[in-house]
Amino acid sequence: MAGKKLNGTVIVTYRCNARCTMCNRYKAPSRPEEELSVETIKKLPEMYFTNVTGGEPFIRQDLKDIVRELYKKSDRIVISTNGFFTDRILELCREFPQIGIRISIEGLEQTNNEIRGLQDGFNRGYTTLKKLVEMGMKDVGFGMTVQDRNAADLVPLYLLSNQMQMEFATASLHNSFYFVEAKNIIHDRPMVAQNFENLINELLNSNSPKKWFRAYFNHGLINYIYGQRRLLPCDMSFDTFFIDPYGDVMPCNGTKDKEVMGNLNDQTWEELWSSPAAESVRRKVRCCDRNCWMIGSVSPAMRKYIWKPTWWVIRHKFLRFFKKKKYSMYELKIVRDYRDGKVTKEELDKLSTCDLNAVINDGLSEASKEQLAHKTGEEIVDADIRGQME
User: Fold this and answer.
1) Which of 227, 292, 362, 363 could form a Cys-Cys staple with 28, CB 3.0–4.6 A?
2) Distance (Å, rounded) from C-alpha 372 to C-alpha 247?
């Protein structure tokens, strides 16, 4: 592994102040005393890209120290946040103007506030984004998790981001220990896919090559919501990793149960990365059938297998000379089969990771679980934030 830079995601906390309908992480927070220390961050390897996420990363008051340390390791850092802690975000960005910020916005105002369960969440997030742009921050944007409830807002939100000259990242519903959820599912696949198709055509219409490749990513999301095999191989745990608040290094955040390659609090990176436990996890990844399509695993795959998305982009840019509409979701055989009645909704539902009978492993330590014996996760985090604000 000498000299090879990795792609890393650092989950700095499981504490969260949002109440998202598709993610129950807020019900299962980590204890601040157990969360990743700067000393452990120092042990991370060289990375070409690092995503800092949570929970809500800005709940951590020492996030600046963590970012300062990560910049010694990583070429590029992007923080995923709900945008609620505006002052903390602006303060961090003043010290690190090159950092990326992605604020989760799940649709236009009413839809967003219903899904994220944050009072005035849309305005808080939108105001934070505007202030970042006014500051001259270049790498800022929205992130949206598309589902039945907000699919109609997909293109309007993209157009809003475009108007503000911002990045626009998409995802769809996933189930895993990380989201403390097993019941997420798209109910009206053709409707959601139609909105993705509209977005893909907007992206292909732009003059930005980056957006053309984003179109390919969204094409993969249609394929994913129809329960099909990934368009690109998954190499999580080989050149990409996640580390959780307890120092456990994992292949990704998409597995049903938490898979641990080693613990960075107790090991050096070299020991951990080449350990028998890490090899065992890699064997599982090679047989994984969850077919996730999240930017954390797809972005490195697109870099590695660049000819596949490139050929797709060339084909669809070339088609614009012959067809008014460059892209149709019916290019995917499964979408045609569903339309033609060759497969049923029940069959597609079985292909998703939705499991109504699942016992959800939340990935918490024993000490974090103990604190939930007497209080809910919401009560714990609300008290924590109140204490910080005093």
Assistant:
1) 362
2) 21
List pLDDT tens digits, range 206-239: 999 999 999 999 999 999 999 999 999 999 999 9
Q: Which one-letter amino acid corresponds to residue 328? A: S
Name which of 7, 8, 17 is nearest 385 in CA terms. Answer: 17
Tell me if the pTM is above 0.85. yes
Residue 8 has pLDDT above 50, yes or no: yes
Q: How far apart are CA 22 and CA 184, in angstroms?
A: 6
pLDDT tens-digit series, residues 66-92? 999 999 999 999 999 999 999 999 999
Structure tokens that stand for 85 in this block:
């802690």
CA nearest neighbour of 364 among 233, 244, 210, 196: 244
Buried b (16+ CB within 10 A) or exposed e, 325-363: ebbebeebebbeebeeeebeeeebeebbbbeeeeebebb
CA dihedral 22, 24, 30, 31 (to 10 degrees): 130
Element (H, E) at 112: helix 109-116
